[in-house]
Write the structure tokens for this entry.
Amino acid sequence: MPNPDLILLHPPNIYDFRFRTILYGPISDLIPSTPVFEMYPIGFTTIAEYLERHGFKVKIINLAMRMLASERFNPEKLIASLNPLAFGIDLHWMPHCHGAIEIARIIKKHHPQTPVIFGGFSSTYYHQELIERPEVDFVIRGDSTEEPVLLLLKRLRGDEDAPQFEAIPNLTWKDGKGEIHVNPLAWSPPDLNHVLLDYSYVVKAVFRYRDLISFIPFKGWLGYPITAVLTCRGCTYSCRTCGGSAYAFRKMHGRLKPAYRDPELLAKDIRNIARFSKGPIFILGDLRQAGMDYAARFFQAIRGYTGPVIVELFDAADREFLRELARALPNFVLEISLESHSDEVRRAFGRPYTTAQAEATMEYALEAGCKRLDVFFMIGLPHQDFQSVMETVDYAGKLIREFNRGKEPRLFPFISPMAPFLDPGSEAFENPEQFGYKVFYRSLEEHRRALEMPSWKYFLSYETVWMSREEIVESTYEAGLRLNELKKAYGLISQRKAEDVAYRIQKARSLIRQIDEVLTMSRSDLREKFLAALKPQVDGANTSTVCDKEELNLRLGLLNLRFLKSATILLRGSEL
Ligand code: B12
Ligand code: SF4
């Protein structure tokens, strides 16, 4: 097996999560990952493919996934046995700040001379703080790092045509004397056509390294192999709390407008993925962001594709658009983020549409034949108090009643808190008072320490003028319970599932109080002892708190995945 030049490591959010008592709360109920956030960034696959195209060997190791899969797996032992030219660690999502730094520390312990490279959105935001740490040698900033990583690796390998460190765009680095340099953020490609976004690198690498588990994106993926394609990097909208808004991209990545992928390439990505997977494919980004012409070209290019595709809308849509969408993708599923029933709250959050416009869009989507319509609501928004959250749940009940009347239900509402952190770089993080937020943690180190607390109430990095931290937590559990009841009453979930969810919510509610009590103890040895005793119960309440994660899955029928069959053979005898 070839020794890779670059090993990309994806950390768990909290390094020692397997041995600590942590009540995560519903921080990941509405995404495929568990609360450990084991999914690695899509960018790992584009960086890896780009480097391979230019003669380097790259391996992805999803450490979080491997740690989840087996208690016996020892990440330190694995890291000690590796010997690449450089290690890359994603600190893309802020909740990984604990795990990412710890992994870097372990690398330096065993390989003091091997460069450690950080990258991703949070690394970009906190590049100065990161580079000051002894574990970090390089930070590559920006939303498009394939080319800067290539130049850096060439430099590290000592290639003759490699630029000097000071000439590598987007690089924050330390020289031999420990002096810090911040190179200009000069690499920001205007489009997204220079990368391959179809996972073909992953398929090849799994076979080359005879190692499926290191590449698996999240726990349960083999049973529900959802993949995603990207329409762009960037966003034209400015939702106030989003670290990927137009505002945040401008501030952090110097990007003035999104880099779009040609619609024909996007269609090709989907068809390529369908060659090895029959799972649903999520098209990330509203297809209309680059204009209606973009959407029309995509529909033209994808016509005839019949696999399940999930599409998201960032604004209301008219009847004609949804009909066109259904003609091009007959098996489409739609996701809309309504955030709240209240126009006032939604407007304050930065969404451009009214409840009435959203309802018309939902009606057109169902009329056009969408297979499923997922509607998302959020807790922790500007102008939203406890009562408003409860009214949102009542409104979700109204949607279920009116849109699913007398038929197999297709509309599924979900509600979750904005947690654990307010995104650094978002407008609300940068100007909290202006939007009614109070931010508890500002630095990377403060966020990292917060993750050492035993419950999500203390991770939560903000509260608002309208709700305290306690109220955000309590409204989350209450809203979860009420929505669960509604889903049971209207047959969206089975009686059994509803009972399980209700049990977990009540359990989590009681555990959060018990943890609060333990934290009042003055003796740290007693605190540790009581927390350790709570661990089995806490672990049992940790997944699918406010809804069952599987509610998000489409019914796929029997999967027939050529790739998976071959890979499963490879895996026999491993510890998955
Ligand atoms: C798609 C998406 C997702 C997908 C993930 C798809 C995936 N596997 O990457 C899903 C829906 C699963 C998701 C989940 C979450 N997301 Co999200 N997501 C997005 C979204 C909408 C687009 C991201 C995107 O375009 N990526 C494409 C490009 C920009 O990134 P990339 O190609 O993956 O990586 C490039 C660079 O980032 C960099 N890079 C990344 N990693 C590394 C590592 C190294 C070593 C180097 C050198 C470079 C590098 O180089 C890459 C190649 O050029 C953004 C919002 C936005 N408009 O950006 C939010 C966003 C990134 N998500 C965010 C958050 C908070 C989350 C969650 C934590 C939310 C939650 N509580 O559940 C989870 C975490 C999931 C996990 N890890 O398990 C925040 C992050 C803010 C922050 N700084 O922490 C954002 C900005 C906005 C938001 N609130 O949704 N997300
Ligand atoms: S939450 Fe809003 S700003 Fe962020 S990616 Fe989605 S539409 Fe864009």
In short: The longest strand covers residues 332-339. The chain has 23 helices and 17 strands.
